[in-house]
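Ticket reopened. Same input as before:
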Amino acid sequence: MMSDNGYYGQYGGSYIPEILYTSQQQVQQAFDEARNDPAFIQALEQQWQQYSGRPTPLTFCANLTEHFGGAQIYLKREDLNHSGAHKMNNVIGQGLLVKRMGKKRVIAETGAGQHGIATALVAARLGLECTIYMGAKDVARQYPNVFWMRQLGATVIPVTTGSQTLRDALDEALRDWSGSYADSHYLIGTSCGCAPFPEMVSFFQSVIGREVRQQSQAQFGALPDRLYACVGGGSNACGLFLPFMDEAQVEKVGVEAGGKGMALGEHSIRLSHDLGQPGIAQGFASIFLQDNQGQLQETHSIAAGLDYVGVSPIIAHLAEQGQLRMTYASDQDVVDACTLLLRKEGIIPALESSHALAAAFREAGTLSPQQRIVINLSGRGDKDIFNVARAVQDAEFPQFLRSYLREYPDNLQLASDAGQGRAV
Amino acid sequence: MMSDNGYYGQYGGSYIPEILYTSQQQVQQAFDEARNDPAFIQALEQQWQQYSGRPTPLTFCANLTEHFGGAQIYLKREDLNHSGAHKMNNVIGQGLLVKRMGKKRVIAETGAGQHGIATALVAARLGLECTIYMGAKDVARQYPNVFWMRQLGATVIPVTTGSQTLRDALDEALRDWSGSYADSHYLIGTSCGCAPFPEMVSFFQSVIGREVRQQSQAQFGALPDRLYACVGGGSNACGLFLPFMDEAQVEKVGVEAGGKGMALGEHSIRLSHDLGQPGIAQGFASIFLQDNQGQLQETHSIAAGLDYVGVSPIIAHLAEQGQLRMTYASDQDVVDACTLLLRKEGIIPALESSHALAAAFREAGTLSPQQRIVINLSGRGDKDIFNVARAVQDAEFPQFLRSYLREYPDNLQLASDAGQGRAV
Amino acid sequence: MPTLSEFIRARSQALQTSERLPLLAMTHVIYGYPTVEASLAWMRRLLEQGIELLEVQFPFSDPVADGPTIVAACHRAVENQPQMQLCLQQLGQLQRDFPQSRILLMGYLNPFYRYGLTRLVQDAAAQGIAGLIIPDLPMERAGQFRRDCTDHGVEPIWLVTPATPAERLASIARQATGMLYCVSRSGVTGQKDGAQQALADYLSTIRQHTDAPLAVGFGIRRRVQVEALVGQADIAIVGSALLEAYNAGGQEAGLALLASLGII
Amino acid sequence: MPTLSEFIRARSQALQTSERLPLLAMTHVIYGYPTVEASLAWMRRLLEQGIELLEVQFPFSDPVADGPTIVAACHRAVENQPQMQLCLQQLGQLQRDFPQSRILLMGYLNPFYRYGLTRLVQDAAAQGIAGLIIPDLPMERAGQFRRDCTDHGVEPIWLVTPATPAERLASIARQATGMLYCVSRSGVTGQKDGAQQALADYLSTIRQHTDAPLAVGFGIRRRVQVEALVGQADIAIVGSALLEAYNAGGQEAGLALLASLGII
Ligand SMILES: Cc1ncc(COP(=O)(O)O)c(C=O)c1O
Ligand SMILES: Cc1ncc(COP(=O)(O)O)c(C=O)c1O
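Engineering reply: fixed in the latest deploy. New output:
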């Protein structure tokens, strides 16, 4: 979807400190050129295929379909991307753009760590320096991802300000960029941020929806009747939905994180139920969860990738226009949906993606067996073992961890017990 | 590669308790029919593509190539399969065969847990009951995999006899099969076991090498000069090598686990250096690590999937015939190779696959820039975080685990401290 | 009442003949930090010292253009739940109590946006606030805001930086009225002639395009940095350093810093 | 010296008129468990009690056809590093000391294979061992082995199971000479008539194809199970149950079990 000069209705735009003006313009210009350069598109498609394994398949789920007795259920398998999530589509695109711009370093923010890992992977592959900002709380909660980022050669900087989560990491990344724009690119991980990021990220993610169109025609000779995607920042949803915007008969359903309840701080529902309000922050205009003074608020989701305080201006606009329907799923619904997919189809979904599953499962039975729905499985769930084990209250997992800890090299245990940080 | 009535030279065959004769024959017959049934092949290819995401790409590694200054280095990306390893190719094939035979249950052994997860995934998808045997030591070491198997609905049985590892799990699975053959299929995870398993597993894995042939022609207009694969049981090696057996000019290199040293028990080198001897055990004739009385011995590798005591009769035969060259890589070489791939190409390899990398890296610089090598990246490495973190002596990982444990629901901690096992 | 630039020019004139360095002092205080009361007391104290320009930052949860000290203080201030309306009233009272100084309200867009930008300008004007600084509002998107400012006699204060392209810098500078906020990221240590030269070039380029007073902020923390500005700019902005001094030793330490800089 | 089947037939004859149930006892002992000495002492004790057939299992690290009790004992025995050559010699000594009984050597293929199958047959023959049981050597692959056995006068003992297809069962049974080892997995409780009938059918089918003595093992642990075999088989094999009794209470408990079963 092309923006109107960076705007989607009243949302979008570029509200950034003056110091970033030049870099922002540079990205805008580089992207405008690249998207129209067949050589760039060819290189992009080659990396998508040869590095990330695209196209990802469209998987028919016979057992689930039978279980709900309604629509035929298909999954778009973004979990099979290199790195295990759709994030890879975007980082490959922006990574190639960085090379094109001749910059040597990328900065990224990450919440769950998925975008951080994807960025670190691509940075390694393209020979770019890489600095990842991550809320200190997220570093603590998602350390396995931090570990891999560091192994990949990235510098991970825990952000100790504010709520110490994604939002603060984003602020800090912007601050870094303000000082390093000359040689650094800010590689935003979702379709948020100042123009042209929402449009650019969506452009790179739209490969998802384009493939779904082709695969639907090839596998069942029609377009799907309904599409489901979870909405964190909105990039996987944009990627799935945008190539279908001309088809009003294909219903698009965005699913937000319902978390633990409807009180502010317990969820990350920005669009459904009008829980968020228009705002302008972190570089763009959109709907944000904020108080009456315009202060952004804390959010919650069982899926670390969905607890963002804002949302893509593209999604905000389309929702406002009624071109997509927003709904949400609670933490509990999500664990149930995850378990059901595991048992019925032998696929381990990310908890983020399980939001889309939960909403689709709620509705599948009300559709007719002639209808077909496609759920975007934005990522795989093995990364979520720490969360899922806790959610299902597995008793052996802590036992395993304890015995692992007992065997860990001794000196390191002491060092880390004393909180002395990294030894390497 | 077609066997001579289950034999490859002096290796292979079917040496099983009489009670399994009928089931073995049944598998043999079902496989012989299925492999010649276009409908079966079509269903197989469909699941490979739509469920597991095949074809997996062939990735050119520009940075590594430059780094070594020798041959052009390509990776066959089996890590991008559903479940993260080549194991999926085989379990899909045998899973479909089980449906064809009308059986309702599968049994499998697993060491690292990769084959166990792959089997549990496919069993869930095909609606089969699933029992996984796993050495009690492996259960303790590889609990995250056990967790997912159970979440997938599989019954995981820790085997407490013998060395409590893969070998014992295999024995126990055979025992289960002896009592349950009427409705159960023993879904062997590598190209070992009684006929027709080595041939069947290799048949299903040969999709790897077939794709490499096509992709080589498409991407660089020639066949590769050299192929590398790690050799545990031998299935990923068979899968890569067999479609190239008519091409003597394509050198095939199998890489075993050199472990910590050359003393018995410190490695899992069965073929290189003649450390193993001919034997007949676990249903087939091959080369095994054994003492002078024919007792099978304990093995070691940093990669849990490579510490098998025997080896595929196909690999044993080809090595004996000089049709492939066997070498090995030590635990330390493997960690280094893993790290190098991470940093240079942004790909996280399984420690198993890192053996193939290590051997290829050793040799790449001695080849000319006109030559091309393909290394089979049999699996991805995120599953190995517990091993890699320990190997690189990361100081924050134990810190993360401790704080995670502190927040784990209390009652469960107590239950598990008391060693009371599963709560669910 | 004189316009902001008239005010600044008059005070600059007066300073030429004073003991102080001939630069106006613009000091930065975060409303609500560490508490609303304490921040107001600190502002009052600064105004009593004759500070010409008081920059009051309305705190925001996500102050992306600020450095760590100010970020931390903003987060703390947000916890005190600052209210825009009350803030404007309290600043109005200060302005009335200290007619010899001018108060500028600085803040990120979202709290202003939620309050209503037009309403903000109206209320700020009613309270006698001289100017508004919004670092994340680009001039291109500020048409209505600028009209409102003109209508109500409040100065919109724009920023330029060393990274601002020449043409854009010229355009912004040309449109500056009350003052132009010149950010210098390069910093000036006084030792490095090269850096000093770069600052001089930067400011003289700006000067070519505008007669508006120039305010310069680049982490001023030593007198030699202020001295380097004499003759090239009109206003020295003291932000983070003042906050750090305040954090370390309260109002007294803050004032001591300003005295050591030669601007009170 | 009589052949194995002649020996069995003669002893069966004799038992018809004894106090004991008219079935030969075949008791199973693992060489090297819990130690080599203890296992030899236990064999000797059994032979002293008049056990007709002693089945000695040479332990293997991977005994895939055995249940948990025997598996655990084999693993323990392997730790004692049993040597094939010594084992054969020691069994030979036993055979010489107890000429009224027969010793059968059972084991998985690999230790025999490493020793050399031909050499094994030769050495077993030299030591007077009457038969060899190798559960994982299929008859199809045993051409040379059978010729060696014939040449040296050692009986290869084949197994059949309820799962063995009719034709194959017939073929194996027809080729059986010394005895046929009939595994019954279904178990016989004595209570369930259906199961008892199934066993009877199984054995009578086998009997149609061979005159060789039939040995039956299916986890015998109660007298009623042995009684059920009378008239249908020649030999009752006591394996796991004997090992369990031995584990629980040593030789005495083992003998007590055999007595309670009516076969000593
Ligand atoms: C697997 C997965 N799905 C979805 C999301 C949400 O992001 P977005 O809404 O941009 O697709 C994330 C973010 O980390 C993710 O990791
Ligand atoms: C990733 C991976 N590679 C290789 C192997 C070794 O098995 P094989 O030699 O059968 O390919 C395993 C076994 O678990 C594995 O998980």
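The radius of gyration of chain B is 21 Å. Confidence is low (pLDDT under 50) at residues 412-424 of chain B. Please confirm and we'll close it.
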